């Protein structure tokens, strides 16, 4: 299974501000009644984007000028809460290819890496700089560079870190671990043989 | 003293339980530096597994250890309709899908017909599947619950469920360990739920990032297994990836005689082995936090994350009183959503719904404690109160003791087992901006099924106090607990 080497994402960005944006907000539980992940993109941030009657609430993702953005900017502790992969799946199916935030909740971060979505950690000031540039010109080209740990936009560049194990996995095309894990099944069986509770 | 000579006890360096369990289950180091970690017990439920089975089929793979994989149905299951097909066709489709996958891959399924169905984190311990010194994974963040037994238990995403199904392993970076000591004695009317709400309030909702929490000290030593589960359950709400208590006699007594517990000579060997996993005296922790039990009061959340909690005697925070920009913004956002008045006492806030249940507080002791105090009392007019046992076995235990009748007489609806209003994927939902006193674990915006619904987290007895008075109340006063 050759996976794409994800070294950088180039595209437009949109900022969804706020700290502690949880997975229930990213994808409300009632949209998880599904047996495939297809179609989750349309429900991304549903309850903060839509009124009960289906009409739009004011939200960056509802603004025409930000349509087609592939880089999502946000605040601290992004993706906290549930382990539901439905959250990164909805982000990816909506069209996002990278997320930039001050920091991420653990499970969410891991789930993103597994789907090939780089999660960049940048300082609040630097995220604000990118957001200001995007606000001024939503068409500004943003390059989220995994290999070089930086984000470039409108002639500027800020530091943005993708944690080492995730970066390694992304740039070397190893972000979906299944191939490597399958190679280790023999070794897994030897480890299991030493653990009495695993006896069949 | 004779001692079993397991690999980990050969090393002279004192180790924490986390390190011992990790080392015993580490298969090898992967190219990116993470560990391929053996997952001894895999628990699955209907919401996060169907896509994983789909991936498995696409890759033409089999389940590596079907005998170590256990399924139940909890999130979507209606609590007021026992007979299929369920009114909600999507719920029925998920049920059918799980049933089909379990049959196809040879996995034990605690379906309703077995009488053992329930919330996955209640079923594992109840069946004796959850054991000390083991690794457990489940596509659910509250898998940390199982740490109460001295297991290392992780919540995982769906792609990782596929990994565990196919290889019985996941790729994971080693965690740091923070020891949290709670010393002294809890005051009357203060419960395990208050302990963990207090810890999260002190350390923050992302204070645990990168850590496993080891809970220790007199308070945890004295706790029952059910109480330890309540605490470990919410480790994830503090940002920790896992949380555990070292196994002791309380643990072994709980496990003895359970369906999946070892018996005879195997039991003695297992207990010896389990003991050997407990953290060694003098082992190193990456961080240590000390909390005095006397500082913990019955705690209630007022905001939109589990860290936004206060003692029942305190007032709702006032954003004007803080100069920290972040804190101010988060208080403002929370109060705007919660429609609560800054600076007002939390006590006396009118509630619409009272919910007792969930994997945090849906076990026998929770209902026993509530029934003991609400006996002869009535739920206040206009309050909808529901009590949802965490498993069919819990339901049966309660019914044998007549707790269901006591609760029903008080005005609680007694339901069938499931997650219910904890996340409202079934028909139990808040309506509009109803305010719910809830014994569950999350108060995120929209968590209980209505996009504007509001949740106040608290202990089951505090929920009961709110139910009978119609507003947030101090259970110690309402029920004369002292
Ligand atoms: S009771 Fe709530 S937290 Fe627990 S597994 Fe069910 S939905 Fe998740």
If classified by CATH, what would the architecture of the largest domain in chain B be?
2-Layer Sandwich
Order of helices and strands of chain A: EEHHEHEHEHEEEHHH
> What is the share of helical residues of chain A?
25-40%
- How far is the N terminus from the C terminus of chain B? 43 Å
- Reading off the top of the CATH hierarchy, the class of chain A is best stated as Alpha Beta
* Ligand roster: iron/sulfur cluster
Computed Rg of chain A:
18 Å
Describe the SSE topology.
The complex is a heterodimer of chains A (200) and B (482).
Chain A lengths: L7 E4 L1 E3 L7 H4 L19 H4 L21 E3 L12 H9 L3 E4 L4 H9 L4 E3 L2 H13 L5 E4 L4 E4 L2 E4 L4 H8 L6 H6 L1 H9 L7
Parallel strand pairs in A: 2-3, 3-4, 4-5
Antiparallel strand pairs in A: 1-6, 6-7, 7-8
Chain B lengths: L6 H4 L6 H9 E4 L5 E4 L2 E4 L5 H9 L10 E4 L16 H17 L2 E3 L9 H7 L8 E4 L13 E4 L2 H10 L1 E4 L3 E8 L8 H12 L7 E6 L1 H5 L2 H9 L8 E4 L3 H7 L8 H14 L9 E6 L6 E3 L7 E3 L13 H14 L14 E4 L1 H4 L2 H11 L9 E4 L4 H9 L2 H8 L1 E3 L20 E4 L15 E4 L2 H10 L5 H4 L4
Parallel strand pairs in B: 3-4, 3-6, 4-5, 6-7, 9-10, 9-12, 10-11, 15-16, 15-18, 16-17, 18-19
Antiparallel strand pairs in B: 1-2, 2-8, 13-14
Bound molecules: iron/sulfur cluster.
Quick overview of this protein structure:
Chain A is an alpha/beta fold and 200 residues long. Chain A has eight helices and eight strands. In chain A, α3 links the parallel β3 and β4.
What does this structure look like?
The complex is a heterodimer of chains A (200) and B (482). By secondary structure, chain A is an alpha/beta fold. Chain A has a single domain, classed as Aconitase, domain 4 (Alpha-Beta Barrel), CATH 3.20.19. Helix content of chain A is 31%, strand content 14%. Chain A is built from 8 helices and 8 strands. In chain A, strands 1-6-7-8 form a 4-stranded antiparallel β-sheet, with helices on one face. Chain A has a 4-stranded parallel β-sheet with strand order 2-3-4-5. The longest helix of chain A has 13 residues, at 124-136. Chain A is globular. Chain B is α/β, with parallel strands linked by helices. Chain B is 34% helix and 17% strand. Chain B has helices at residues 7-10, 17-25, 50-58, 89-105, 120-126, 158-167, 192-203, 218-222, 225-233, 249-255, 264-277, 325-338, 358-361, 364-374, 392-400, 403-410, 460-469, 475-478; strands at 26-29, 35-38, 41-44, 69-72, 108-110, 135-138, 152-155, 169-172, 176-183, 211-216, 242-245, 287-292, 299-301, 309-311, 353-356, 384-387, 412-414, 435-438, 454-457. In chain B, the strands form 5 sheets. A 5-stranded parallel β-sheet of chain B has the order 5-4-3-6-7, with helices on both faces. Mean pLDDT of chain B is 96; it is low at 1-7. At the A-B interface, helix 2, helix 3, helix 4, helix 6 and helix 7 of A face strand 1, helix 3, helix 4, helix 6 and strand 8 of B. The complex binds iron/sulfur cluster. The site of iron/sulfur cluster has 13 residues of chain B, from helix 13.
